[in-house]
């Protein structure tokens, strides 16, 4: 059974070809690309040589086959990726503004992704899981998916594994009050919390990102994702910053998921904190260099070469 498990939505992403073209006007798109934060995480782990499985669902359509084939070909265990007849694969449309911000239109409700149910979760599949990764985006898809994620995380936690949580908040889908409500059960059992500064503030109610992360560091490891500045880790014992690498940014989507995947792989390998953060920053940086959420996720040998390993 896989040592690392990711649970949640998998979808295709269709994006504007050019920067500065909003979604609300006619224009060209490129894609589809396999996507979905939990799926990107799993794919990144596999490309880094990690033992990873994915729990989710796609439709029995060309988009679903695209997503399924991509994970399988990259080495993700897809034995628990359902292919659902009569439901379409989830999708998202995205545009990029000149300032680097993004706009999304999601189609998640009543898709295959929305069919995960907690009673269908096979506990035996989680028998050897050391790390389970949960995303806030998955918690927002439906009550069934949310309860599936919470149940899976609780099982792993109860067996001595670690719960990774990336809030990956989509304000387009939920209000702040709703976000805080649905993430509360996962925050209660979280071991490694991976917010951006804005997300840390949303969840804790503390506007200063550093203070927000410090407020949580006595009961969990917090790794603040700081974009081009890199990241800062907060533990009971120390606070440590690690700078990002310099790259030409082509597509920022999925960088945080690749970052989380690298942390999971490095943590299971026993990397010391400084090396662990450097490893994650290199993986995240390389992921920015190709168009498509999974396309830039690097292979382990490329990361090792850059780090001089």
Describe the structure.
The protein is α/β, with parallel strands linked by helices. The chain has a single domain (4-307), classed as Ribokinase (UDP-N-acetylmuramoyl-L-alanine:D-glutamate ligase, 3-Layer(aba) Sandwich). Helix content is 35%, strand content 22%. The strands form 2 sheets. A 9-stranded mixed sheet has the order 5-4-1-8-9-10-11-12-13, with helices on both faces.
Short structural description:
This protein is of the alpha/beta class and 309 residues long. The chain has 10 helices and 13 strands.
Main sheet characteristics: 9 strands, mixed
- What is the number of E strands? 13
- The H/E string reads EEEHEHEEEEHHEHEHHEEEHHH
Q: Helical proportion?
A: 25-40%
Helix-strand category: alpha/beta
Output the CATH topology: UDP-N-acetylmuramoyl-L-alanine:D-glutamate ligase
Radius of gyration: 18 Å
Q: What average pLDDT do the residues reach?
A: 93
Separation of termini?
A: 29 Å
Number of helices: 10
CATH architecture: 3-Layer(aba) Sandwich
Question: What would the principal axes of the Cα set say about the shape?
Answer: globular
CATH superfamily: Ribokinase
Spatial strand sequence of the major β-sheet: 5-4-1-8-9-10-11-12-13
Task: Give the strand content.
Answer: 15-25%
Number of domains: 1
Parts with pLDDT < 50 across at least 5 consecutive residues:
none
What is the CATH C level class, in words?
Alpha Beta
């Amino acid at each position: 059974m896989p040592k690392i498990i990711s649970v949640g939505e998998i979808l295709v992403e269709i994006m504007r070809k050019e920067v500065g073209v909003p979604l609300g006007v006619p224009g060209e798109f490129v894609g589809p690309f396999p996507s979905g934060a939990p799926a990107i995480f799993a794919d990144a782990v596999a490309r880094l040589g990690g033992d990873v499985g994915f729990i989710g669902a796609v439709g029995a359509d060309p988009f679903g086959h695209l997503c399924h084939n991509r994970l399988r070909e990259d080495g993700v265990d897809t034995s628990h990726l359902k292919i659902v007849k009569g439901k379409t694969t989830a999708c998202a449309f995205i545009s990029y503004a000149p300032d680097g911000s993004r706009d999304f239109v999601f189609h998640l409700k009543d898709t295959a992704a929305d069919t995960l149910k907690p009673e269908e979760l096979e506990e035996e599949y989680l028998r050897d899981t050391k790390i389970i990764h949960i995303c806030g985006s998955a918690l927002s898809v439906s009550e069934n998916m949310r309860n599936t994620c919470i149940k899976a995380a609780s099982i792993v936690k109860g067996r001595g594994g670690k719960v990774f949580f990336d809030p990956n908040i989509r304000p387009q889908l939920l209000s702040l009050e709703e976000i805080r409500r649905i993430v509360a059960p996962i925050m209660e059992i979280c071991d490694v919390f991976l917010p951006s500064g804005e997300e840390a503030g949303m969840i804790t109610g503390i506007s200063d990102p550093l203070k927000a992360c410090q407020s949580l560091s006595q009961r969990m490891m917090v790794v603040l994702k700081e974009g081009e500045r890199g990241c800062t880790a907060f533990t009971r014992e120390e606070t440590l910053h690690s700078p990002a690498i310099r790259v030409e940014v082509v597509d920022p989507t999925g960088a945080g998921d690749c970052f989380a995947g690298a942390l999971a792989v490095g943590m299971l390998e026993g990397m010391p904190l400084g090396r662990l953060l450097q490893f994650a920053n290199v993986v995240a940086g390389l992921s920015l260099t190709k168009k498509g959420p999974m396309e830039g996720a690097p292979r382990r040998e490329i990361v090792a070469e850059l780090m001089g390993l």
